[in-house]
Every structure is written in structure tokens, then in C-alpha cells.
Amino acid sequence: MRAVAIIALLAPAAALQVRSRPPALRRGAVALAAGADDDATLSPKSPMAGMVLLGGTEPAFWSDLNEETREGTFVCAKDGCNAPLFPSETKYDSGTGWPSFWAAGKDAITVDDGGFLSAMFGREVKCASCAGHLGHRFDDGPINTTGKRFCINGAALRFREGLGDRALPCEDAAPSS
Ligand SMILES: *[C@@H]1O[C@H](CO)[C@@H](O)[C@H](O)[C@H]1NC(C)=O
After folding, report:
1. Which atom of ligand 1 has the smallest separation from the CA of 144?
2. Where do the TM regions start and end (predicted)?
3. Is the pTM of the predicted complex or chain greater than 0.85?
4. Gap from CA of 104 to ligand 1 centroid (Å)
5. What is the rounded CA–CA span in Å between residue 74 and residue 166?
């Protein structure tokens, strides 16, 4: 019932603005309708979340969370998980088209060893709570931070605004200068 109402509200706006709004925002409207039954304190869940959490990668510049700059916490998008993963303080614009962070929350994620191709393809990053696939970690992050780049699928994340239930950066995440 609630989802239907939101679709009805969005439909006229989407029809009017379909030419002027960038594609990411139109997709956001669809995601909002799809996630309307979920935790109201979280940003909408992407319809692509299931595919990504199982190991897929969303297209570059696909996620609305690329542009999310508010203070808060990015949490796991898997149903029933919602584990706090990345604090907003560690988010930065890597220009890659995927939400990027220079550190994760303490004990929030696991990172595999990547094998001999890790320099090219990164090391796989998973949610420590549910083992859902989040993205990859590379070693070309900002040099004034950890030097790491956590390149994370926006579809694997949801954003919780505000300072409640924080993912706190791990101890080694302090900027080096
Ligand atoms: C790192 O340097 C960039 C560019 O000067 C700056 O925008 C950013 O805030 C710095 N990050 C941290 C964590 O100090």
C-alpha cells in the first residue's frame, strides 16, 4: 500500500522531468519505490542489491550514493543485515564512478589476499557480518590517508543519515598527515 502510494507520487514528477534529470536520479526514484517497505531511517535499497551482494558489479556511475556527502553511515544492504560498514568521514570522490572510501569501520569488513592479480583487480571486500560481496580494495587511495581505496558497489550499501549507530573508523585509519 505504501509503495503504491509512493509510485503514484513519483510518477507525475518522473514524467515531467524525464528529459532534464540525469539517469542516476531517475533510477533513484525507482529504487525508492522498491525499498519503501524497508527501514525508514535508511536510504532506499537498490533493486540491484541482491545481484551485487552475490558477487556482481554495478555499472560505473550507476549509484546515487556516489553523490552522497551527508554525515552518516553506509550500512550493508543485505536483507536483515544492515551492519554499519563505512563512516561518511572516510568517503571521498575517486572519480571512478563507484562510492569510494579510504577506510572501513572497525571489524566491519573482510579483505581477501587477492592473489597475484590483486594489483590489477584489487582484493575482494565482503561484509564481515553476512559475507555479502561489497567491492574491492586497491592501493591507490589518497596518500594523506591510509593510501587505500575501497571501491564499493553502491547497490551493496544503504545510507543512514546522522550520527547514531556509527561505523567508527578502525585505529589504523587515521590520516598519516
Ligand atoms: C587529503 O587531501 C585532500 C586534498 O588536499 C583533502 O581534500 C582531504 O580532505 C584530505 N583528507 C584527509 C582525511 O585529511
Report:
1. 1
2. none
3. no
4. 17
5. 9
Rounded CA-CA distance 48/15 in Å is: 23
| C-beta atoms surrounding 164 within 10 Å | 10
Dihedral sign computed on CA atoms, order 124, 133, 159, 41: negative
The phi, psi pair for 133, rounded to 5°, reads -70, 130
Residue labelled with grid coordinates 587515521? 174
- Alpha helices (runs of H) in 18-155, residue ranges in sequence order: 23-34, 49-53, 118-121
> What positions carry a catalytic annotation?
151
How many Å apart are CA 175 and CA 177, to the nearest integer?
6
* Atom 10 (ligand 1) nearest CA: 144
* 54-79 pLDDT tens trace: 999 999 999 999 999 999 999 999 99
Residue to probe by mutation, ligand 1, list 144, 150, 172, 176, most atoms within 8 Å of CB: 144
- Quickly count helices (H) and strands (E) in the chain: 4, 9
- Lining residues, ligand 1, CB within 6 Å: 142, 144-145, 175
